[in-house]
Write a structure and sequence with these properties.
Elements lengths: L2 E6 L1 E3 L5 E8 L7 E7 L6 E6 L6 E3 L7 E6 L4 E6 L8 E8 L4 E3 L3 E5 L2
Parallel strand pairs: 2-11
Antiparallel strand pairs: 1-3, 3-8, 4-5, 4-9, 5-6, 7-8, 9-10, 9-11
């Protein structure tokens, strides 16, 4: 059974740091590009960051560039999103996604709340 199991997230004050992680089982992540999305209440799901299959290329939404970092470890079959200098507008449910030409898989979602 293919699963992307997320962990991390939680509640943090503005300016704080969090990491969300995603571990895969039942599939080898080195065959997939990876991405993190988020969805805030009442808003559509948006792309936050992506990383290519070999890790050589990353992309970021303008709103998080310079604050968030996506990275992967294909030996551990794991991808993570390091989030620094968090803002209240970063509050959302965060989802990891594994995708290639033939398959797409999503994690279960992790709540990140930035509030004082």
């Amino acid at each position: 059974q293919v699963q992307l199991v997320q962990s991390g997230g939680g509640l943090v004050q503005p300016g704080g740091t969090l990491r969300v992680s995603c571990v895969a089982s039942g599939l080898a992540l080195d065959n997939f590009d990876m991405a993190w999305y988020r969805q805030a209440p009442g808003k559509e799901r948006e792309l936050v960051a992506s990383i290519s299959r070999n890790g050589a290329s990353t992309t970021y939404a303008d709103s998080v560039r310079g604050r968030f970092t996506i990275f992967r470890d294909d030996i551990l079959n794991w991808v993570a999103l390091q989030m620094n200098s968090l803002k209240p507008e970063d509050t959302a449910v965060y989802y990891c996604k594994a995708f290639n030409l033939t398959n797409i898989y999503w994690g279960q979602g992790t709540q990140v709340t930035v509030s004082s």
